[in-house]
Specification:
Blueprint: E1 94-97, E2 112-115, E3 142-143, H1 176-180, H2 183-186, H3 190-194, H4 215-228, H5 230-254, H6 270-293, H7 295-302, H8 306-339, H9 347-375, H10 378-399, H11 406-414, H12 417-424, H13 438-460
Parallel strand pairs: 1-3
Antiparallel strand pairs: 1-2
Helix pairs in contact: 4-8, 5-6, 5-8, 6-8, 6-9, 6-10, 8-9, 9-10, 9-13, 10-11, 12-13
Length: about 475
């Protein structure tokens, strides 16, 4: 910055400066104290010469411009007073960059500070510029100092490299690569940026353990479902109560020392026949309840393999039903063997009355599961399975009186579920028909066909 000068009056063309007169001061500059009248020689005071007021050009950094003295002729007869300081330039400003003190770490190095300093004093015999030369009044000097040397700050792995020092480049400008880089990429670690098909680093690995789903996971899921719903407790509980309760009542009714019962375990299936009516709803509800609530979509999303889902449901249902039925059948068989009079049952009879009956009821529950998968409706599937168990026997009772329908009615009775269950205990309704383990094989064949159709329908449907 420059401070403007006040205009000076124009001198007369014929006026000359008398020798011995002092230097003419610019307007507004402080005048030295006047000399005593005795020391001043009588001389005519000339009028001041014109002085152009303009600003001096801008000086480059790291250089301080010294103000120029006003040209004037010194009188040989009159010396300058030594006690009085010379006239200074008014309003000289210098802008200097100073290093911050060590006690203030928060201030950045190279802070620009504006400070006004007095103009330096010109030497006593220095050459003066010619008259009318431009005068440096109020010059502002901009000086940039190098920040103190120190170790460069540590950079994060995802930040841009350090910028060069100020002495290597005059203007301190931001790095172009940081300005061009999007802000969201600066927050991504370098290891993630390098990962991928085109990167040099390894592929990204999730901290959450990711494992492929197997049949074991599906089994754990189905076991959690079947044991956490109330329908399982109620259906299996009522089945055990009917099987054990009715079996004990039958044993008490037949317990007579004078009555011989052969085989001893031939009447232990009465309660189990009514218990099958409770297992049928359980097999249907294992899958139809998910269709009714919409949970089946979540199940197929978690496990896209639908065959695996149906297999897991079948295994869990079969195992649970088989264990519960076999245990209850064993209790009833022990009660009948101890309370009734007759020949002791053989090993095959024990096995068919306990394990064979348990397998028969478990396979019947799988048939109910297949019906629920095909119909996808709880009420419809339960009604269909109940009719399959009871309807053939009821129809045969009404048709057996007709001569023309008697053969058909006989076949219905021989392959009905109650007759097959009684055949396992050695008490079939008809002399001709499945005996021994044959009723279990017949029911297993029918269940395999229906369950295969359920697998095929489940794969072709949307849900």
């Amino acid at each position: 910055m420059t401070s403007p000068q006040q205009p000076q009056p124009q001198p007369e063309p014929h006026a000359t400066e008398a020798p011995g007169t002092g230097p003419t001061s610019p307007a507004g500059a402080p005048q030295p104290p006047a000399q005593p009248p005795a020391a001043q020689p009588p001389a005519e005071q000339p009028e001041p010469r014109p002085l152009a007021a303009h600003a001096s050009p801008q000086q480059p950094p790291q250089a301080t411009q010294a103000p120029q003295q006003q040209p004037a002729e010194q009188s040989p007869a009159q010396p300058q007073p030594s006690a009085q300081p010379p006239a200074r330039e008014a309003g000289t400003m210098m802008l200097q960059a100073q290093q911050p003190p060590a006690a203030a770490p928060g201030k950045e190095a190279g802070t620009m500070m504006l400070q006004a300093q007095p103009a330096p004093q010109a030497p006593q015999g220095a050459p003066q510029p010619p008259q009318g030369a431009p005068k440096d009044a109020g010059t502002m000097t901009l000086q940039a100092q190098q920040p103190p040397a120190g170790p460069p700050p540590q950079q994060a792995p995802y930040q841009q490299p350090h910028q060069p020092a100020p002495h290597q480049q005059a203007p301190r400008q931001p790095a172009p690569q940081r300005a061009q880089q999007p802000p969201h990429q600066q927050q991504i670690p370098a290891a993630w940026q390098a990962a991928g098909p085109g990167g040099a680093g390894p592929a990204y690995v999730s901290p959450i353990p990711v494992r492929r789903t197997t049949l074991g996971h599906a089994l754990a899921s189905e076991w959690t479902k079947i044991r956490s719903v109330r329908s399982t407790m109620w259906t299996l509980g009522v089945m055990v109560l009917l099987n054990v309760g009715i079996g004990l009542l039958t044993a008490l009714a037949l317990a007579d020392p004078d009555r011989v019962v052969e085989p001893k375990l031939g009447f232990a299936w009465f309660g189990l026949l009514l218990g099958t009516l409770c297992v049928i709803p359980l097999g249907v509800l294992v899958i139809s309840s998910e269709y009714g609530t919409g949970m089946i979509r979540t199940t197929f999303t978690a496990c896209p393999s639908r065959a695996r889902v149906l297999t897991a449901k079948a295994i869990v249902l079969f195992g649970l039903t088989f264990v519960v039925t076999t245990v209850s059948n064993a209790l009833v068989a022990v009660a009948h063997a101890g309370m009734l009079t007759g020949p002791a049952p053989t090993g095959d009879e024990w096995l068919r009355a306990t394990v064979g009956a348990g397998l028969f009821v478990a396979v019947l529950s799988l048939l109910s599961l297949a019906a629920g998968t095909l119909l996808r409706h709880s009420a419809g599937a339960i009604s269909a399975m109940t009719g399959l168990v009871l309807l053939p026997m009821l129809m045969a009772v009404f048709m057996i009186t007709s001569e023309s329908l008697r053969p058909f009615a006989t076949k219905l009775i021989e392959y009905s579920v109650p007759n097959n269950l009684a055949s396992l205990y050695g008490q079939p309704f008809m002399p001709d028909g499945p005996t021994g383990w044959q009723p279990l094989l017949v029911l297993a064949g029918v269940t395999a066909v229906v369950l295969g159709g359920a697998y095929a329908a489940l794969q072709k449907r949307d849900v």
